[in-house]
Design brief:
It is a single chain. By secondary structure, the chain is α+β, with helices and mostly antiparallel strands. The chain is about 30% helix and about 35% strand. It contains five helices and eleven strands, in the order E-E-E-H-E-E-H-E-H-E-E-H-E-E-H-E. The chain has a five-stranded antiparallel beta sheet, with helices on both faces. Strand 9 and strand 10 form a beta hairpin. It is elongated and about 75 Å long.
Length: about 200
Amino acid sequence: MLFDDTYRTIENPSEGVFRDRGSKFLGYAFPITSETQIKEIVNRLRDEHPKANHHCWAMRISPDRSVFKVNDDGEPSGTAGRPILNILLSRDITNILVVVVRYFGGTLLGVPGLINAYKQATEDALNQAVVIEKTVNDNYDLAFDYLQMNDVMKIIKDDNLQVLSQQFDNNCTMQIGIRKMQVNQTLAKLDNIEGLTTTYVTSH
C-alpha cells in the first residue's frame, strides 16, 4: 500500500453558528499540531462564554483516522463530540480542533436535534475556513564542515527541502524537513557528502 504523505487541514481559525428553537451553537475551528493545545483553547472559550451551558469538542491529529478525541461536556453521550468528529472525518480534515459552544434556549432538542445542531455548527465553521494541503515531513539534524556547504545547499534546493534552523561556523548544523515520500532518496544524496552526519529528530 502506498503511504499517503499529504493531509488536509485549515489555514487559520474560523467560526460558525447554528440556531434551533432558541438554542445557539457557536462553532470554533482551530488548526493544531499537538493535543497539549486543546486545554488552553477550551479554557479560553470558557472564559469568553462563561454563561454557555456546554463546550463540546472533537479533535484529529495526523493523517491517521484512528487518532482523535471527543468530549460531550455534559450533553447526552454521542450527541456532540462524535457528530463533530464525523464531519472532520467526512471532509478528511486533520490537525484540527473544533469546539462548539452551546447556549441553551429553554427547549429540549432531543437526540436527533442535538446531533444535527452540533453537525451544522461544525459545518458552518469549516465553510468559513480555508482548507490547505500539507505534506508529512521527517525532520533531520545535519552536521557538516563549512567546506561542504555548497553541496548541502544544492541538495536542499534540488529536493525542495524545508530549512527549520541553521547555524554556520567552521562546523555547521542545520535542521531540515524532508517530505516523507522522498526521505530515502534525499538521505542517499546526503550520505555521499563526506563527513556529514544525519540524525532523525521527529515526524510531523
